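haha ok so turns out i had the wrong file open the whole time. this is the CORRECT one, sorry everyone. sequence first:
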Amino acid sequence: MRKLILFSLTGLFFCSCQFNEKLVLNENGSGNYTYSFDIDAGSMLKGLDTSKAEKTESIEKGKAISYSGKTYQTYVDENFAKSVVKSNKELFEKYEKLIENYTVKVSEESDDKSSTSFSIDFKQPSEIVDGNKIFFYHMMLEDAKKGKSTFKDKVGKRDNVVNYFNSKFDYKNNVFSRNIEFKAEEKDKKQSEKDKELMESMSSMLKYKTTYVFPKRIKKVNNEKATFSLDGKTMNIEYGFFDIIANPEILKCVVEFE
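then structure:
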């Protein structure tokens, strides 16, 4: 599974990328969750010939695209060839299901910089779909648009990408929690060493930050990496993105309030 995820991230090998999760929770359990990633390939591409890439740029500089679950089909019709949709039918259907209640925004400041976000206004935290799930499907959509490896090649009959990151958010009895469910896989020692070397070489380029904004002061949290705002209601936790891939359970947290 980890090998599959690394393969899905090959397009980021020459980029620095900042991943951000922000969850704002209200007293009644409603709120907003936004998952975003900002890509900056400028420093990595200096000295490289990008003339061909410029000619095939799919999104014009400065142009922003926005769509939701309700307008997704229109977005697909306007941006994907029918042959691509037909050959990747399962991918498009699963992605549509994931973003059913989300708004997706994609903007490109230049050829080297882009920003993408997935956002949902929820009534209860249980409605949140982990942004990591949506991210990997979004990346495969981009690959399909560019004629790269198909969804079937990467996932086959298994739904591994969508099941690997399976966060469950909850808020009740003055406690907020995020639990991670995933199926641990048997590790091939040689492959694990190769994956480890690759992840270490890229760790400085891919950062991950989670921000939680709560309606009450935090009394206790089970994460030693957490830092807090002066009013005690905002919590930040930073990770290396590949640390999450190696062990998704580090995203777990339980927060008790005063």
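Residues 131-145 form the longest helix (15 residues).
again sry for the mixup
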